[in-house]
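Reminder to self: tokens first, then the designed residues, so the page reads top to bottom the way the pipeline ran.
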């Protein structure tokens, strides 16, 4: 890219001063190409540290998310068809799957928008808030399925209301 700027027509050179052109030439000739760019240390430009490679956070993690999202469709359809609380396994699977799907979605949002490097206090706080809320919802779903009508019966009542 630097070479193409230096060899470009005079229209492009008009925007680069002679000092800038010399700096580009020296930068191009003295700095070898490093995949991912140069590494700066000891300033605000420190690169983001990458987590160690893990198979569970790679393609298996992505495949699990898609499988979970796709499995919610037949489970919800089965909840409509059965429409009774005589299927506690379906209630449990549907409850856990809905909560896991929501947790993964909110966690992805937090990772994207409230990164701990940019928000050193708010990022981890919101992550732990999400984990606490997920645990609370799981306890509530368990209580609702065991001591009340259950999710499949709730879906049937809401559908016919």
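Designed residues (161 positions):
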């Amino acid at each position: 890219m630097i070479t193409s700027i230096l060899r470009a027509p005079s229209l492009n050179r008009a925007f680069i001063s002679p000092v800038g052109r010399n700096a580009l030439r020296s930068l191009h000739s003295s700095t070898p190409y490093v995949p991912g760019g140069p590494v700066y240390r000891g300033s605000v430009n420190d690169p983001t540290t990458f987590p160690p490679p893990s198979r569970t956070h790679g393609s298996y993690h992505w495949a699990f998310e898609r499988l979970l999202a796709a499995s919610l469709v037949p489970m919800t359809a089965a909840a409509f068809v059965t429409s009774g609380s005589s299927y506690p396994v379906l209630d449990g699977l549907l409850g856990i799957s809905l909560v896991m799907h929501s947790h993964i979605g909110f966690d992805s949002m937090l990772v994207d928008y409230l990164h701990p490097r940019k928000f050193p206090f708010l990022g981890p706080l919101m992550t732990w808030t999400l984990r606490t809320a997920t645990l609370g919802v799981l306890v509530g779903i368990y209580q609702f399925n065991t001591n009340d009508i259950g999710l499949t019966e709730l879906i049937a009542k809401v559908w016919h209301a």
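The chain is about 70% helix and 0% strand.
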